[in-house]
Design brief:
The structure holds two protein chains of two kinds.
Chain A: H1 18-37, E1 41-42, E2 48-50, H2 51-57, H3 60-63, E3 68-70, E4 77-80, H4 85-95, E5 103-112, E6 124-134, H5 139-155, E7 162-167, H6 168-178, H7 181-192, H8 196-204, H9 211-218, E8 224-225, H10 228-235, H11 240-257, E9 265-268, E10 281-286, E11 295-299, H12 303-306, E12 312-319, H13 320-332
Chain B: E1 7-12, H1 15-26, H2 32-36, E2 42-45, E3 50-55, H3 60-65, E4 71-75, H4 76-82, E5 87-91, E6 97-104, H5 105-109, E7 118-123, H6 126-134, E8 139-144, H7 151-154, E9 160-165, H8 169-173, E10 176-185, E11 187-191, H9 193-198, H10 200-223
Parallel strand pairs in B: 1-3, 1-4, 7-8, 7-9
Antiparallel strand pairs in B: 2-3, 4-11, 5-11, 6-9, 6-10
The chains are: A alpha+beta, B alpha/beta.
Chain lengths: 333, 224
């Protein structure tokens, strides 16, 4: 036995060799060309940010997973970016005020997130994303991002996929009007698992909620499927704020339908992932046999304000390697 | 396209399998072939568009998380220990038991769990154990074992254990007693996120059908 040094890599990162790099390159250029057709222009943001600046805009769940270190000359804490969207928000707020709204920006970069070592989860995620920053929010804007995601997936040759659309704004209003903060967290946890049995057990014992509302709340975990779940939800509630959200979502769906793309769209009103970060319409892309989402995004109307620029915004990002493996799985079938 | 909408379901080997089979049977799906031949690991019900595989219970969440199976049946103990990102749309109310802390009867006579600050615990469930005690500000040395947990206190490996208990008979036989209840455990129907999103109708049908079986079981139990 010799004591040769082990030439290895830290857990969660990897090399991509020419064959795969070419496949990934093709996916990237396919997506970027769709983005370009919609008028999105690429920006390049730095790998490092001050942790306190980043934490203005990054979601709480992500902040726990940031890799940080102390910058020797200044003693300030520097973070390796775990997400590009807060960077885009910073860029828009501090560098691009002179540009007319809406801003249409896209990017193609890696992010680094601390992951549990288990299961060979990735720490480095290669993303391609687009952000649409505007003075007002409209259902057409949300729909355009969903349409662009569908077109990008078709452009790279994926045939069987669904874009699942939800609305955290709807959920937030429903939860706020029925539960105090502690209980909201529990209900959110149950919804995250679509734990209908748990919801029934929790709500069953609560006398403060009327029977009609109870039925509606217990159903939150089952409002998934095709677009008719929007009507079903609307028929079970009288809450004006919730109805207004459902109406908005209905308009988004209508705009997507007018492009003839509903075969690629499902609805899930009980989806709470990204609850603390997003403010309205959210969406994720899935392909059969690939357990994790290929893309995710949504409306984040409060983010730019945190950087001093009160604008509305919606955006999404592809997990490029996940998408590339979805394409490889499709080729094997 | 043939096979396009088949749902693959991962079932756990062992005592849960029979209970699961009767729930499926009540829902109109006969999975007897997987029960009769324990070397047969995959069984397909073409008419129902269902494919079943029988694997170790600890492997069910992994198969489902990665999408190798669309759905599965897994104990809450396994789900909490592995903390995978899965949907759990239905509590099947089978495999019911409890997760608890136990210690030798003679120790418990002079022991007060509220005064624990640093304890040593043997368990098959290190993550649940760690979460439970750290949540109460108690430091815990965890000894991970793979079976016969009750032996650990008898042989001085640890003072206490965290384990599943159904009747408490095994504990009694080994001179142990329950000192803290951690949680109620039962088996859940779990579902891969992408499967629920890409085959919502199939998933919902199966959840509803099994939900009716579970409700009928509960009614029957209430009558007894």
């Amino acid at each position: 036995m010799t004591d040769a040094p082990t030439i290895s890599l830290p857990q969660g990162v990897r090399d991509i060799l020419p064959d795969e790099a070419e496949r990934i390159g093709a996916v990237e250029s396919g997506i970027l060309s769709v983005f370009a057709r919609y008028g999105f222009r690429k920006v390049i943001t730095p790998l490092l940010e001050y942790a306190d600046v980043l934490s203005l805009g990054a979601g709480a769940e992500l902040l726990d997973r940031v890799i940080k270190f102390i910058d020797p000359p200044t003693g300030r804490v520097i973070a390796i970016r775990p997400d590009i969207t807060p960077q885009i928000a910073r860029v828009a707020a501090t560098r691009m005020r002179a540009h007319a709204l809406p801003l249409k920006l896209c990017y193609n970069e890696s992010v680094i997130r601390y992951q549990d070592a288990r299961d060979g989860r990735k720490r480095e995620v290669l993303q391609i994303g687009a952000e649409y920053i505007s003075s007002d929010a409209s259902p057409e804007d949300d729909a355009r991002m969903i349409i662009m995601a569908v077109e990008a997936l078709k452009a790279v040759g994926l045939k069987d996929f669904k874009i699942d659309v939800g609305d955290v704004g709807f959920l937030r209003k429903v939860l706020e009007s029925h539960f105090d903060e502690g209980l909201r967290k529990s209900v959110q946890g149950l919804l995250e698992k679509k734990d209908t049995s748990g919801l029934e057990a929790l709500l069953g014992g609560m006398d403060s909620i009327e029977a009609g509302d109870k039925e509606f709340l217990m159903n939150l975990a089952t409002f998934y499927g095709e677009e008719e779940v929007i009507e079903k939800a609307a028929s079970l509630t009288k809450d004006p704020a919730a109805l207004a959200s459902l109406d908005y979502l209905g308009k988004v769906v209508e705009a997507v339908a007018s492009e003839g793309l509903m075969d690629w769209v499902t609805i899930d009103l009980g989806e709470v992932r990204g609850f603390d970060y997003y403010t309205g319409i959210i969406f994720e892309g899935f392909a059969p046999g690939i357990g994790k989402p290929l893309l995710s995004g949504g409306r984040y109307d409060s983010l730019l304000e945190k950087y001093g620029y009160p604008c509305r915004a919606t955006g999404f990002a592809f997990d490029v390697e996940q998408l590339s493996s979805g394409l490889a799985a499709q080729a094997r079938r | 396209m043939p096979g396009r909408d088949v749902l693959t379901i991962a079932l756990p080997k062992g005592r849960i399998l029979n209970e699961a089979a009767s729930l499926f049977k009540a829902a109109g799906v006969d999975i007897a072939p997987v029960l009769q031949d324990d070397r047969r690991l995959i069984f397909e019900d073409v008419a129902e568009g269902l494919r079943f595989m029988v694997i170790r219970s600890q492997d069910v969440p992994t198969y489902v998380e990665y999408g190798a199976a669309d759905m599965g049946i897994a104990g809450k103990d396994v789900l909490l220990e592995q903390a995978k990102d899965l949907y759990e749309p239905l509590d099947l109310n089978i495999g019911v038991c409890r997760m608890m802390v136990a210690e030798p009867v003679e120790l418990s006579a002079r022991d007060n769990p509220r005064q624990w600050t640093h304890i040593r615990v043997a368990t098959k469930y290190p993550n649940i154990t760690l979460g439970h005690f750290l949540g109460k500000g108690i430091q815990v040395d965890i000894i991970k074992l793979y079976g016969s947990i009750e032996l650990a206190p008898l042989l001085g490996l640890s003072e206490r254990i965290v384990d599943l208990v159904q009747t408490g008979e095994t504990l009694r036989k080994n001179g142990l007693t329950e000192v803290e209840h951690i949680m109620h455990i039962s088996s859940k129907l779990v579902c891969n996120r992408a499967s629920l999103k890409t085959k919502p109708r199939r998933v919902k049908e199966l959840v509803d059908a099994l939900g009716r079986s579970v409700a009928r079981n509960a009614e029957a139990a209430a009558k007894q």
